[in-house]
């Protein structure tokens, strides 16, 4: 059984929720539920890249600021950002001011446009990397997987940046490509049912 922590209602949650009070809401309402919306998928991959070397608490606290700074992560708009936009963002105290990561978001927005042109949607492409039941490790015991390595390589080959296997696996956990809720977490079954109802995107 994976370690758990009691939530505000006394029910068990994944133990990582104890790191910050605001994690409970994020865990209960978002983490692990399957997503097929391209904007949300792009946003999450970008935010996970910003988290690299930092804590998710830092990124979550700044999420609305990131959304305001990056046109709500509409990659068609972000792809048009210029060097002056990058310089503007480097002065924005509401986000993580890391030139490489900011430039990566703009680059990745352009790559996202190209991917959609080829594949029809980001969702159709990402969900091809959903692991089969036989390949699932015990919840929250790994930080990468064969599928996250494969998706990372595929994205890098297409020119995406800051999409290493660990970043991609965290993205897959959050966007529901795997149900990584602890076995005893009260939301594991809720997410399992959501995944069962979820219609996988097609090209």
What percent of the residues sit in helical stretches (DSSP H or I)? 40-55%
Radius of gyration: 17 Å
The class by helix and strand makeup works out as mainly alpha
Output the number of helix runs. 11
Q: What is the straight-line distance between the termini?
A: 38 Å
Order of helices and strands: EEHHHHHHHHHHH
Spatial strand order of the main sheet:
1-2
**What global shape is seen?**
globular
Low-pLDDT regions: none
Summed up, the domain count is: 1
Strand residue percentage: under 5%
Q: What's the name of the CATH homologous superfamily?
A: Hypothetical protein, domain 2
CATH architectural designation = Orthogonal Bundle
Total count of strands: 2
CATH domain class: Mainly Alpha
Major sheet characteristics: 2 strands, antiparallel
Organism: Marinobacter iranensis
Protein name: DNA-3-methyladenine glycosylase I
InterPro entries: Adenine_glyco, DNA-3mA_glycosylase, DNA_glycosylase
Pfam families: Adenine_glyco (PF03352)
